[in-house]
Amino acid sequence: MLLHLHLVRHGQTFFNRYNRLQGWSNSPLTQSGIADADKAATKLRDYDFAAAYCSDTTRAQITAQRILDMNELAGHVRPALISDMHLREQFYGYFEGQDMSVAWTAAGGPHGAKNYNDIVAKFGLAATRDFLKEADPFHDAESDAEYWERVEGGFSLIAANPLLKDGDHVLQISHGNTLLSLMHRYAPEGYDLSERPANGSVTSLDFDTEQPIDQAVTVISYNQ
């Protein structure tokens, strides 16, 4: 079964505005964040969504609801919104809510990397998670292996939906670092991955539920 996934980065939150790490913690949408959600809704208003998913964070849920509101007003049948923890952003543990530059300096410093992009350039994206877990005094932050095990569970959740059929369109509200991580995994060449995708942007993936997860995803467009 081939599914067309439309992944939207949630609207801007106050933590986004203040440049703070925001994984499992909640922060309200700003007025710009509401506008981000409505912009995405306009882009997606003509799609018939067979299912809709988001993480169990309010920023994702509100973004999803606004998109589905406009979609329904455009004459489409509104699918039930499924919120699940497998679709959350990376968990930053002790560093949740901290200034991003401070957190990534703490993670990369012991390894001779000065910031997030420096860690990626020298050690790869996986190291950003492993270094942060190492720097976390409680070691609660997700390692790369822990992160992908959870995210892959989200794909399994979608694949197991008995209401979906080949060719269906699926809405999924996602998160900045998760979208960036998916791009690094499935389309590391041909796209500018130096920054996270914009709030309210749409990334489209084809998901073949019958393939092993490493071969199941094809990127159609990014950060649109």
TrEMBL record:
The active site is at H10, E89. It holds the Pfam family His_Phos_1. The keyword Signal does not apply. It comes from the Bacteria. Keywords: Hydrolase, Isomerase. The keyword Isomerase applies. Substrate binds at R9, H10, G11, Q12, T13, F14, F15, N16, R59, E89, Q90, F91, Y92. One of its GO terms (cellular component) is cytosol. One of its GO terms (biological process) is negative regulation of glycolytic process. SUPFAM superfamilies: Phosphoglycerate mutase-like. GO terms for molecular function: fructose-2,6-bisphosphate 2-phosphatase activity; isomerase activity. Its EC number is 5.4.2.-. SMART domains: PGAM. This is Phosphoglycerate mutase. It comes from Bifidobacterium dentium (strain ATCC 27534 / DSM 20436 / JCM 1195 / Bd1). The lineage of its organism: Bacteria, Bacillati, Actinomycetota, Actinomycetes, Bifidobacteriales.
